[in-house]
Structures are given as structure tokens and as C-alpha cells.
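PROTEIN DATA CARD
Card holder: THO complex subunit 3
Chain length: 313
Origin: Salix dunnii
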Amino acid sequence: MEETIPFKNLHSREYQGHKKKVHSVAWNCTGTKLASGSVDQTARVWHIDLHGHGKIKDIELKGHADSVDQLCWDPKHADLIATASGDKTVRLWDARSGKCSQQTELSGENINITYKPDGTHVAVGNRDDELTILDVRKFKPIHRRKFNYEVNEIAWNMTGEMFLLTTGNGTVEVLSYPSLQPLETVMAHTAGCYCIAIDPKGRYFAVGSADSLVSLWDISEMLCVRTFTKLEWPVRTISFNHTGGFIASASEDLFIDISNVHTGRSVHQIPCRAAMNSVEWNPKYNLLAYAGDDKNKYQTDEGVFRIFGFESA
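Structure generated from the sequence above:
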């Protein structure tokens, strides 16, 4: 069962285009395109040449009036993407034309967005700890709920029957879907939970916390299976690879940790020059996109992201 990958022989490539730092990177469902969302108020879609060194084509998605904090692709459609911005709007885009096809204005500054695995609903979280669920076809809110605690990243399980919220209280709140009735409160960490990832095989979810730990949970039993302890700063972003065998996690530490999910051991560290905001594995290949607070020698934002996993730099 143990996968071994010669991570130490693999390299990163850098992609430049944004004028300010990149907050979010996400792959489409076929693993051929990557989207990046930036403080420069734009998102970009990149055709990633997985094997060659072709000229990278990218297309700019313009229209937001504030930072694009998070974005996600339609899990069933390789060219549809949703963006959440501090300008209170959520937008759907066609990545082929770069045009916005739908938009709706919500009540606050949006910071988190995720699709239901069947592509029918989008959940959006804002700075005021309010959750809005949108029906993708009509692009209208079907649920709104304000929480009296800090809500961070949000996710559905693979079947879409459970909705998980990470909170500032160190808990994961498990709600049934679509009723949003509370099922369980998982006491996950001693400090706030910042990020969550669902294993692509549907067996586990992982939580990254301000206590610098990543915890791995059996989703059917809601039991903690193990913790990953390599980072020393609050964990900002985590991602499972396509097999569910590896997990990447990042923080203000100047490396990204890749650990074996089954053993808990760290197998590789990717050095970085700044705190990381977003890591995401490709859904088909062992390619990890990552973006952070990189600055150039004049101490201004670089606006780059990188992809690790190529056989040559």
C-alpha cells in the first residue's frame, strides 16, 4: 500500500502574472487548468502544460472590486469557476472566454467558497461568520445562517450529506445537509481550526489549526486517527493528493510539509520564502500548486504562484 515517490528529485516552476500576492490556487476537475485569485482584484486561469515546457497561456478574469480571497472550480465542469471576493460578490466565470456568467451580492466580505461535490450548490462564508448556500443554476441563496462563533473554512463530505465547518473554538461543527441541523461537535484542537480538506477517497478529513498541528479524522467514526506535527506556526492551508496517500500542509514556516497519510511521517519539505496562503494538489497527478506572501527584493508583492512536482525545473 505504501507509495514511495522520489520527491527529492522533483522541482518547482514559477508562474507570474498577478500584480499583488496570490491568496488562492485551485485545479479544475481534469487537472489541466489552474486558477489563481489575488489581492490585485483579479483571478487568472492558466493552461498548465503538465509534461512539456510550452508557453503558458493565461486568461484574466476581471470585474471584482476587491481582493479575490478564494476560488473553486465546478467539480463536474472543467471550465466553470466560482470566485469569492471582499467586494461582497460571488461570481461564476467561464474559463474559456474569461467572462462572468453569473454574479450575486451577499451581505458581507466573502472569504471562503466551496462547491458541493455534485456541482449543484456553492457554499460561501464571510468575515461576519455568515454562511450562504447558493443554488448554482439560479445563482440565488437557498440557505443563510449566521453563527455566533468564528467560522473558518467549510467543506462538504464526498456524498454531500454532511457539511463541515472549522471554528475559532477549536471545533469542527458537523451539520447534516441540506437541513443544516447540527449532528456533532468534534473537539479537534486546543486552538482555532483554520482549514479543512476531504480525502478524495472519502475516508478521512484533515484539519489544520492555530496550534500548528494537522489532525486526521476517520469520517465514519469521527475519531482522530493521527496528527502531523512538522509545522511550528498556525496551519493556514492543507490538501490531500489524488490518491489520498499524501497530505501537504503550510503555514508561516518557510517550508511546505508533505507527509504520508498512513504512517504520519514527513516524506518531503518544499522550501519557500514566505508564509503560504494556499496549497492544492492536482486531482490526477502529483503536482502541488502553492502561493504565499512572496516579496521581491524591493519588498513589494511578487504576485507569483509555483507548482512543485516537475522532473526538471
